[in-house]
Amino acid sequence: MKLNDKTNRYFITASLIVFCAGGILFYFLFQLIIDRDFNQRLHERKEYYIRIFSQSDSLLHYQQFSANSIGIIPVDRIIAGKEVVSDTILFDRIENKFNRYRQVSLGMNVRGEQYKIQVRRALVERKDIIQGVVILEVLLFLSFAVILSLLNNQLSKSLWKPFYAALDKIDHYKAEKGETLEFSRSNIDEFDVLAAAIEKMTSRISQEFHILKEFTENASHEIQTPLAIVKGKLEVLIQSPGLSEDQMDMINTASMAATRLSKLNEALLILSRIENRQFHVVKDINLHETVDRHLNALEELIQIKGIEVIKNYDNPIVFQMNPLLADILFENLIVNAIKHNTAEGSIAVTLRAKQFTISNTGEPPMRDPAQLFQRFVKASSKSHSLGLGLSIVKAILDTYQLRVKYTYGQHVHTMTIDF
Questions:
Q1: Looking at residue 175, what DSSP letter applies?
Q2: Residue 418: phi, psi to the nearest 5?
Q3: The pTM is what?
Q4: Tens digits of residue pLDDT in 127-180
């Protein structure tokens, strides 16, 4: 979720709570104001009727035209100066229903006759007040939420512009190119501090990357040279006359170890260069031609193990990648399928709808399939491989943001790559 959306959510949630609490408070204040105003107008009406009644000869004829606004009751005795305010319910003949009224009752002497006067006024229904307050609150809240969201979006586009510019530069940053990011300064202190920290960090990353790159290349070169010397001396030594069988075995073992160390050094160097994104050249690679070329190059090894190769090709698939990495990728996958196959087994290669699948018969994996793409992990403890082939495959696929899926079933190992 974007920060702006999350901020809006918090603001709207807080506003909803405030509006609900404010609505309740507004209702009681509104009710109090209405009651005060209502009582004031009720007393004004009472004073008006008192002036009218004091000039009248008889009060009872007002009763039938009062429409419940006046109640006049002859009494034997009145209590002078005493007024009572109360609520009551009366039937309204005009609306044909019972309504609530507030009335003020007092005694009055008119021409020697004693009367109990009740001046009434219809009350506003409480549910009508609540309904009005709720409608008002909802309209206010919706208006506030819309205005707040629009205002926040506009402000965010302006205020967060330096931040998104920094993100875009970071996203396109490549340490292997020796770049050091530089940002234009804004009028926001926090973003300027962030920009300065990123500039310092990328400068340090670039320096450390080149130091590591030089170390890796120098170390590989320095290792390969003495290894080549050792292998050359061993080849000369093994041709020396008079060597015993034990001496021959020791020389062969040393030569095999030197060869293995040389291959290991070469594999680790390739893996390091892949992970450091040092293969920049990208071309259109015809996957069918690349796969066929490596199958033909390994045909002798395939025939030695008596493996049957089954090809299932659809329309040609072209993918942009580094040619050397494409060769390393498919060579490692095919060699892995041959190496871990059974005698008289089979390999099925399928290229269909931008998907590459290679399957081979073989024994069940001795390890968790999720670990097969880690460094120095072998499918079997008896294997003489370096355990780096699938690690290199995974590194190449990660470079191009591709995924490999491994499955095993019915004595068949299957690897699938979607291009």
A1: G
A2: -100, 125
A3: 0.49
A4: 666 677 678 777 887 887 788 778 877 777 777 777 778 888 877 777 666 667
Q: What CA–CA distance (Å, rounded) separates 274 from 321?
A: 12
- Spatial separation of the C-alpha atoms in residues 398 and 390, rounded to whole Å: 12
* Domain span including residue 92: 3-145
Strands (DSSP E) along 111-203, which ranges? 113-122
Q: How many CA atoms lie within 13 A of 308 on its CB side?
A: 5
Count Cα neighbours of 393 within 13 Å in the Cβ-side half-sphere: 22
The CA distance from 309 to 312, in Å, is 10
> Which parts of the chain sit beneath pLDDT 70?
1-4, 55-68, 79-81, 94, 124-130, 133, 175-179, 217-222, 275-276, 368-372, 374-387
Query: From the centroid of its chain, how far is CA 250?
Result: 60
Helices (H), 305-370: 323-339
Closest CA to 172 of 277, 72, 96, 87: 277
Q: Which residue among 98, 117, 145 closes a domain? A: 145
Q: What count of other Cβ atoms lies within 10 Å of the Cβ of residue 269? A: 17
The backbone torsions φ and ψ at residue 114, rounded to the nearest 5 degrees and listed phi first, read -95, 130
215 and 135 part of one domain:
no
3-class state of residue 3 by DSSP: helix
Instruction: Show Cβ contacts of residue 187 under 8 Å, excluding neighbours closer than 6 positions.
Output: none
Q: At 388, which CATH number?
A: 3.30.565.10
